[in-house]
Design the sequence.
């Protein structure tokens, strides 16, 4: 079977801490009750009505990850001695996106439109390890017996067109339509030095696309307290899946993942202090156990998730902002 050294389930369905915008990530991915420019079309379209003219955001991100693995080492008396490094991996990936929001209709019932592109599900993950001969009498000592690698590249992005209107004073509704597209390329390999004929390499390439939507509501209880709620409908991402490896002819088939919908509710509070401070908190619920994967006959085996997010933003003199987030 292919190498099983795959500890990160997100390499199959995408990371849940994808980069959106610096202020979104810095405040724990909150945004259902705070205006986030054009990205609000993804998080809660109803918050777009906070825009009074226009706003444009563009951002880049560098994601650096370290992963080290250790193997316990024992002496001849079966006593623990130390940990030996069997894998030391460093990964760097770039991400980014943009967001545009503009008020197109003024008056008592304003209308705001948005357009954004964001990395939504990042599949990227890479791991490599080597298995060495533990016998001190081997020649050479600690010779490499086997190399194992597992690498996934690609991201599922979402292009979003959003619209919102204030239907009555203090109450807004919005909708965002998302087009998801991207790729996921995976490779498993094991190289045996003592039995080279047993070595193999397997590859998998998938280019999914799909559509879904987000419905949102905004309630302004007072100039200092706001409520937000949004529901993102399930996303069916499907496309051609090509498998190959070891000189075998490529096999193409259709593959589909049905991501479950997500419900988000949140609160934003602006105390009467000067300089200004904003507190926000929200809860997102996703029924991951309902995820459907045509590649997994027995189901994905995931559990439902309640994601609690909190954020604080403080504005200092000179309009410098400091943000803190927790999930």
Sequence:
């Amino acid at each position: 079977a292919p190498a099983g050294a795959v500890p990160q389930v997100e390499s199959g369905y995408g990371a849940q801490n994808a980069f959106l915008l610096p202020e979104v990530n810095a405040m724990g991915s909150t945004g259902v009750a705070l205006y986030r420019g054009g990205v609000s079309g993804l998080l809660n379209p109803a918050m777009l009505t906070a825009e009074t003219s226009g706003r444009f955001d563009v951002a880049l991100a560098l994601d650096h990850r370290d992963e080290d693995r250790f193997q316990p080492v024992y002496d001849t008396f079966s006593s623990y001695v130390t940990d030996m490094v069997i894998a030391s991996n460093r990964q760097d990936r770039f991400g980014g996106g943009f967001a545009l929001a503009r008020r197109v209709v003024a008056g008592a019932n304003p209308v705001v439109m948005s357009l954004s592109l964001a990395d939504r599900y990042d599949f990227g993950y890479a791991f490599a390890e080597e298995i060495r001969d533990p016998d001190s009498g081997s020649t050479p000592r600690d010779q490499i017996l086997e190399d194992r690698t597992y690498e996934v590249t690609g991201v599922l992005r979402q292009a979003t067109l959003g619209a919102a209107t204030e239907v009555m004073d203090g109450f807004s509704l919005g909708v965002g339509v998302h087009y998801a597209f991207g790729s996921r390329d995976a490779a498993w390999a094991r190289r045996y030095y003592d039995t080279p004929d047993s070595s193999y390499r397997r590859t998998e390439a998938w280019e999914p696309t799909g559509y879904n939507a987000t419905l949102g509501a905004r309630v302004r209880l007072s100039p200092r307290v706001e409520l937000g709620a949004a529901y993102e409908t399930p996303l069916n991402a499907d496309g051609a899946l090509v498998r190959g490896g070891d000189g075998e002819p490529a096999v193409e088939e259709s593959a589909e993942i049905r991501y479950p919908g997500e419900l988000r509710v949140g609160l934003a509070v602006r105390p009467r202090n000067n300089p200004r401070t904003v507190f926000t908190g929200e809860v997102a619920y996703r029924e991951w156990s309902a995820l459907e994967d045509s590649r997994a006959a027995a189901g994905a085996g995931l559990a439902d998730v309640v994601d609690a997010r909190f954020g604080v933003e403080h504005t200092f003199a000179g309009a410098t902002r400091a943000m803190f987030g927790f999930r």
Summary: The helical segments are 10-13, 22-26, 40-43. Residues 1-6 have pLDDT under 50 and may be disordered. The first strand starts at residue 54 and ends at 74.
